[in-house]
Amino acid sequence: MMALPIRLRLTGWYFAVLAVVLSAFGLSAYVEMRHSIHRTVDEELHTRAEGVRQLIERNVARGDEDNLQEGLREHTELRMGGALLQVSDEQGNWIYRSPVMSDYGVPRMIPPPRGAVDFVADAKMPLRIWTQKISVGGESYLIQSAFEMDDFYEALNHFALLLWISIPLLLVSAAAGGYWISTRALAPVDQITQTARSISAQNLSSRLVVPHTGDELQRLSETLNGMLERLEAAFKRITQFTADASHELRTPVAVMRTRAELALRKARSTEEYREVIAEVLAELEKTSALIEQLMFLARADSGGQSLNFTPTNVGEVLREACHQGSALAEAKQVAFQEHIAGEPMWIKGDASSLRRLFLILIDNAVKYTPASGQVEVSLHRNDGFAVAEVRDTGIGIAQTDLPNVFERFYRADKARTRELGGVGLGLSIGRWITEVHLGTIEVQSAPGRGSSFQVRLPLAKAAA
Ligand SMILES: Nc1ncnc2c1ncn2[C@@H]1O[C@H](COP(=O)(O)OP(=O)(O)O)[C@@H](O)[C@H]1O
Ligand SMILES: [Mg+2]
C-alpha cells in the first residue's frame, strides 16, 4: 500500500485533532449552558415555594385556614410568575390551583417529592416544576411551582444549531487552510526531488536550489549539495585516475611494440635479438610493477585490500626495508646509514604493507639522490608514536610541488622521473598505508639540498 503524501497526512491529523477539540468544546458549552439555566430557574422556583410556605405557616398560625385559598390567590397575583402554582393537601385535594396549571394539566405528584423535574404539558409547553412537601400544624401540603421554559429552550436549541453549523464549517475551512499551508511548506521538497532526480554522472556539477528560509529545508538542500560536491570530487578523481592509468599503460606497450616491429623488419644476429628482448623485458617489468600498483590502489579504494593487523615491531620491519634499500644505494653509490633503536616498538599493524611503505620512501630517496649523496634512515619514539624518518641529500622538491607529491600520478619533474622509472603512485600508496594505520606522513624538502619524509605511527596501548 502506498503511503499518503505528507501534506494529506498532516491535514488529516490536523482535522482529527481539531474535530475532537471543537466537539468537546461544543458539547461542554451546551451542557454547561443548560445546567446554568436550570440552576437559575430552580433557585427562582425554590424562592417562590418558600414564599408560599411562609404564607401557609402564617395562615395556619392565625388559625385562618379557611381563607388559605383566597390568600394564595392574592399572593400569586401579586408576584410575577406566580400564576404557575398549585398546592394540595395530603388527601390530594386541591387547596389552590392556578388556572394556567390546570390548563396545562400538571398532575399533583411528580417525583421526586422535593426538587425540580422537566415536564412537557399538554399544550407542548415545556415546564420546569419544583415540588416541595411541607408540614404545618399537623397537616402536610404539597407545593408545586412551575416555570415556562420555552424561551430558554429555544435559545438553547439555537445555540445547538449554531454549533452544528459552525463546527463543521470551521473544521472544513481549517483543514483547507492546513492543507494549503502544508502544500506551500512542502513545495521546496518537490523541487528538491525533481532536481535530484535529474542529476546523474553527466551533470554531477548541478546543484539544488537552496531556499533561504533558514529552516530544515534549507539545511536539507545545503546538506545534499555538500554531498553532491563530495561525490563530484570523488567522481572526478576516479575519471582522472582511469585516464592517467590508461595513459601510463599505453606508453610502455607502444615502446615494446615499436621495438619488436623494428627487430622483425629484417634478419638480425642473435646478439641483436637478445638486446631487443632484454629491452622489452625491462619495459615489461616496469609495466607489471605499474599494474601491481594500480591493483593495490583499486583494492584500497574498494575497501577490499585485506590487511592483517597484528602486534608488529616497527624497528624490525624498517630494518628489513633498509636491508633491501642499502643494496639499491650501493648499486647507485649512495651512502646509506640506518639509526634504528634496539628496543622494540610495537604497533598494531600489517607488517608487509608497512615494509612496502618504508621501501617506497627509501626507494625514492635513493632514486632522487645522485651518486656520492647520502640516505639516512632513523626510527625513534616520540609521545606515544613511532617516528620513522627517511632523509636524503638529493635533488629535493620545489615548494610548489610539495603539497602534491602524495597525489596519484603526480611527478615533480615529469621528464626526469619518467626516465628514472616512476609513474607517481608510490607516495599515494604510502599515504594510504600510513592512514590505515592511523598515522601521518609529512615531508620537508629544499631543492638541491635534499628531502626528509617522516611517518608517525601510533604505538600500541600496552607499549606506549
Ligand atoms: N626523496 C625525494 N627527493 C626528491 N623528490 C622526491 C622524493 N620523493 C618523491 N619525490 C617526488 O615526488 C614524486 C612522487 O613520488 P612517488 O609517488 O614515489 O612517484 P615516483 O613513482 O615518481 O617515485 C616523484 O615523482 C618526485 O618528483
Ligand atoms: Mg616512488
Describe this structure as you would to a colleague.
This protein has ten helices and twelve strands. It has 464 residues and is an alpha+beta fold. The protein has a five-stranded antiparallel sheet with strand order 2-1-5-4-3. A hairpin with a 2-residue loop joins strand 9 and strand 10. Helix 1 packs antiparallel against helix 4, helix 5 packs antiparallel against helix 6 and helix 8 runs antiparallel to helix 10. The protein starts with 5 loop residues before the first helix and ends in a 6-residue tail after the last strand. The mean pLDDT is 89. Bound molecules: adenosine-5'-diphosphate (ADP) and magnesium ion. The site of magnesium ion has 5 residues, from helix 8.
Helix content: 55-70%
What is the tally of helical segments?
Answer: 10
Mean pLDDT figure: 89
Radius of gyration: 53 Å
Fraction in beta strands: 15-25%
The secondary-structure element order is HHEEHEEEHHHEHEEHEEHHEE
Residue windows where pLDDT falls under 50 for at least 5 positions:
none
Number of strands: 12
What distance lies between the first and last C-alpha atoms, to the nearest angstrom? 59 Å
How many strands, what sense, and barrel or not for the largest sheet?
A: 5 strands, antiparallel
Instruction: Indicate the structural class.
Output: alpha+beta
Q: What compounds are bound to the protein? A: adenosine-5'-diphosphate, magnesium ion
Global morphology: rod-shaped
The largest beta-sheet arranges its strands as 2-1-5-4-3
